[in-house]
Amino acid sequence: MTTQQLHEQILQKKSFLCVGLDVDLTKIPEHLLATKDPIFEFNKAIIDATHDLTVAYKPNTAFYEAYGLKGWLSLQKTINYINEKFPDIFTIADAKRGDIGNTSSMYAKAFFEDLNFDSVTVAPYMGKDSVEPFLAFENKHTIMLALTSNEGAFDFQTLNTNGTELYKQVLETSKSWKNSHNLMYVVGATKAEYFAEIRKIVPDSFLLVPGIGAQGGSLSEVCKYGMNDQVGLLVNSARAIIYASKGTDFAEKAREEALLVQKEMEGILSL
Amino acid sequence: MTTQQLHEQILQKKSFLCVGLDVDLTKIPEHLLATKDPIFEFNKAIIDATHDLTVAYKPNTAFYEAYGLKGWLSLQKTINYINEKFPDIFTIADAKRGDIGNTSSMYAKAFFEDLNFDSVTVAPYMGKDSVEPFLAFENKHTIMLALTSNEGAFDFQTLNTNGTELYKQVLETSKSWKNSHNLMYVVGATKAEYFAEIRKIVPDSFLLVPGIGAQGGSLSEVCKYGMNDQVGLLVNSARAIIYASKGTDFAEKAREEALLVQKEMEGILSL
């Protein structure tokens, strides 16, 4: 998918919501546990209930790997379901990978070819040759961690490096990498005021924004500082939507929560 | 496994070699491709041929994920085979994971519980709460990237942060984390002179050292600067050993290569 197609989808749905599919078997409705593949059944119901309100789905691979082979199968079935039934929706493998060149190529193959995700998240610590193998895939997108939404973000990401914070150096340096037009960035919503600074460095890139909802960020603040003329934001919400209810009405309640966010986004987009 | 047990194994085998099981189907002997699970058959033969010369095996998860479900199954069979047949050998899931707290807990569960590895590699960028969930597992080890062996290491890891290089700040900061005694660190062999500086910060920790062999690092140089009185080094070699031959003699040739390294290590340990 191109960023142009993603932008068109945003305008059409009046939404830039990404739903995080971080499925924990201890948190999903009990009646699903009797099914053959509870994780997939849960995802399928959530997707069917929210696909017209969201422009992206983001399974976090940790939640699938934790269940071993069965989990990996659930992930495969989930991405196949989205790609077959809702091919216009942008898909993100939230994997935070990154390794030396030949190894990153294997990860890129895993997520872009074998699983056929539109994008994957990567970590920047190992630098250029750990990220460029992902960038080599045209019409696939590599979403690099810049400033994350957790407390530990302040351990290293905001350290002063040569007069600027490390995360700004990461953003700046990455612009010189081959095929950097395929980069997007993770920027946590808990630090809305940082978006103005970030937009000076990467005015045109899409930003994937976790931290709305359970982690406490404000949507309007993020949009105020982070939106560009292509919208340029994908705002993720996971727990607040997918665990809105633990009853048999979980999908319906998830839709209600997603609709609240979508309506707020529609309001912001119409300004 | 405790680090004490690892140290005893090193003394007994006169080796601190770690064999990297980075299995690429395009590089393994053709006759294996006709078997039901070529990756596992390859690993099994390599393990059977080298287990008395090596103290650790390190499958890189990328190489398994690239083959989807079948690859994950090969990884599971490989770790189970090592754990059952050679339970004294230290196992490393080279996964370079790291995410917000509840997600890192899921990764820790995947590698420490579901797959039962002794250790997993993690990336530091997201800071304390992305690593501590791994450290919570007693007698499991979390091997954090400090200074890697690739070219991109110089993009961010060696940036000057508050008067010192970022990787030194990473080492220093991590010592204050909860259960930091369960930390080991990745330090690339291509920069042997850096080991002296690193040992000032983490004198007692085990260091996992990639970059010997295909990446060009010198074993004697690394040992000169990096060894401590518990040895404190696990030196990884992957391609130079596992791809020593593409013929039916691949396991035998892998043993010959491993033996060369082990003999060099034996010489160093006897000094």
Would you write up a description of this structure?
The structure is a homodimer. Chain A is an alpha/beta fold. The first copy, chain A, has one domain (about 5-270): TIM Barrel (Alpha-Beta Barrel). Helices cover about 45% and strands about 15% of the residues of chain A. Chain A has twelve helices and ten strands. Chain A has helices at about 5-15, 40-50, 60-65, 70-85, 100-115, 130-135, 155, 165-175, 195-200, 220-225, 240, 250-270, and strands at about 15-20, 55-60, 90-95, 120, 140-145, 160, 165, 185, 205-210, 235. In chain A, the strands form two sheets. In chain A, strands 1-2-3-4-5-8-9-10 form an eight-stranded parallel β-barrel, surrounded by six helices. In chain A, strands 6-7 form a two-stranded antiparallel sheet. In chain A, strand 9, helix 10 and strand 10 (about 235) form a beta-alpha-beta unit. In chain A, helix 2 (about 40-50) packs parallel to helix 4 (about 70-85) and helix 5 (about 100-115) packs parallel to helix 6 (about 130-135). The radius of gyration of chain A is 18 Å and the shape is globular. The interface between A and B is large, with 58 and 58 residues.
